[in-house]
Amino acid sequence: MKHLVFAVIFLTSAIMIQAQDIKLPQPQKTGGVPLMETLNNRRSTREISEKPLSLQTLSDLLWAAAGVNREDGRRTAPTAMNMQEIDIYVYTPEAVYLYFPAEHVMKHILDGDYRDETFRQPFAKKAPVVLLFVANYQRMQRLDQQQKDFYGATDTGFISQNVYLFCAQAGLNTVVLGMIDRDAAKNRLKFDGKAQLGQPVGYPISR
Question: Would you say 150 and 85 are in contact if contact means Cβ atoms under 8 Å apart?
């Protein structure tokens, strides 16, 4: 009987943990604003509303950033030697998630609001979503530290620009953040790598 009770408790706990993951809807890969108009609209904007993003918008955003766009698993953003070493952590007011492009899922990492801990700018602490780009050293073992620093920075730049372009065509505001607390992020999230940049995303503030 004790074994049965333990099994039920374990199964229930597993279901609760799994339920915290977010399976994103299929991204919308057609339509949108033409490329030249999108480039014309691209800008850094620090005025971001606290209004939450819809799940569909979040799905489209993450796919545009570094989602899978080919059957062989390659991404919308290039990476050196196809290492796919840049992880995207998604900070929300309720929790922190890690985006898994292959499954198009946001895996729950921890509960709580840690925007204030990692991002120093007041406007970023109120954005509904803040992306943290982390170079995952487990996928960069063939490289020396200088190469890790170089490719981690350049490959993050590609992803950040994808976010910029998506926001420009979707009517969202964003800005890339170099001034972040990298040590706080690493201590909190326990990753083996380097936090490169942050990028808050949200709707414009209504006037």
Answer: no
Domain 24-202: CATH architecture, name and number where available? 3-Layer(aba) Sandwich (3.40)
Instruction: Give which of 114, 120, 127, 162 is closest to 45, Cα–Cα.
Output: 127
- pTM summary value: 0.89
Dig out the tokens for 163 from the structure: 């976010």
End-to-end CA distance of the chain: 63
- Residue type for 117, please? E
Tell me the pLDDT of the chain (207 aa) as tens digits.
444 433 333 333 333 344 499 999 999 999 889 999 999 999 999 999 999 999 999 999 999 999 999 999 999 999 999 999 999 999 999 999 999 999 999 999 999 999 999 999 999 999 999 999 999 999 999 999 999 999 999 999 999 999 999 999 999 999 999 999 999 999 999 999 999 999 999 999 986
Please calculate the CA angle 88-54-103 and round it to the nearest 5 degrees: 45
Largest CA distance in the chain: 67
